[in-house]
Amino acid sequence: MDLYLPIANLSVNALVIIGLGGLVGLLSGMFGVGGGFLTTPLLIFYGIPPTVAAASAATQVTGASVSGVFAHARRDGIDFHMGAVMVVGGVLGSIAGAGIFRLLQESGQIDTVIAVLYVVMLGGIGGMMARDAVRTLVAMRTGTQIAARKRRHHPLVASLPLRWRFYRSGLYISPLAPLLLGFGTGILTMLLGVGGGFVMVPAMLYLLGMPTQVVVGTSLFQILFVTMAATLVHATTTKAVDIVLAGLLLIGSVIGAQYGARLAQKMKPEYLRGVLAAIVLLVAIRMALGLGWRPDEIYSVIVE
């Protein structure tokens, strides 16, 4: 069943795209991540241009985040005050990211930059996740206990001026910290099409010192509005959003997330983290090979 993607300017098998969305949704349901950091590389592997893959993945993340935000809001798992500050930073970051995206696009380097950023970020995050997973599994086998980390914000955050009280998080810190965090995530959302949860969640835990019970919900709240802004900016400036592609991905991810949530209940969290770390590292290695591997056709001709 082939469908023509008007923005990507190629025909794809609709069932394959839905399957890719389903795979990302399955991982999302199993591991509690948005999945955007895997959607873009998988689309690139399939042959979708990186610019269209990144822009359309942001659209898919927006749709996939809605149900998560409502679920966490019902159980009071969102710090709306903190989330609002991050959303402001994220929207500003999306605007700045659009300018960077256009500059790289005009210079012809956007595809390479997207691939390099993915290799660096996925490699680093996958490595840290693998280290923590191995430590936890070793501790389980040997019967030793890992000391619990004390919740405290980073000294750099403590040194920033203009402190505010964030009552739901129990913090008294400068709003500049979550504002800058949101700004950086907004730029990543524009360039890579990711929701940024795989960056936001560790930063909120280890830099801001937020409690775990509000971290995921607040991250999803920020992701929802920032990806909405990124999609709007992409649609009006870069013209890289392919709504047909995003719709197919969303259909698959919604279905896959339901099955992923069921599988997650049957597996131990320690093993889940190890599997996710392995998947992230494999994607990073595949992206790195794509950067250095000589293609079959060195030159390509584009007819407009």
Number of helices: 11
- Helicity level: over 70%
- How can the largest sheet be summarized? 2 strands, antiparallel
First-residue to last-residue Cα separation: 26 Å
Note the run of SSEs as H and E.
Answer: EEHHHHHHEEHHHHH
Total beta-strand segments: 4
Could you say which overall geometry the principal axes of the C-alpha atoms support? Answer: globular
Q: Specify the structural class.
A: mainly alpha
What is the number of independent domains?
Answer: 1
Compute the average pLDDT: 76
- Widest beta sheet: strand line-up: 1-2
Radius of gyration from CA coordinates: 19 Å
Low-confidence runs of at least 5 consecutive residues: none
Q: Provide the β-strand percentage band.
A: under 5%
Describe this structure in words.
This protein is mainly α and 304 residues long. It has eleven helices and four strands, in the order ββααααααββααααα. It has one domain (2-291). The chain has helices at residues 14-31, 36-46, 50-74, 80-107, 110-142, 155-158, 176-192, 197-206, 212-238, 243-264, 269-292, and strands at residues 2-5, 10-13, 164-166, 171-173. The protein has a two-stranded antiparallel ribbon. A two-stranded antiparallel ribbon has the order 3-4. Strand 3 (164-166) and strand 4 form a beta hairpin. Helix 1 (14-31) runs antiparallel to helix 2 and helix 4 packs across helix 7. It is globular, with a radius of gyration of 19 Å. The relative contact order is 0.22.
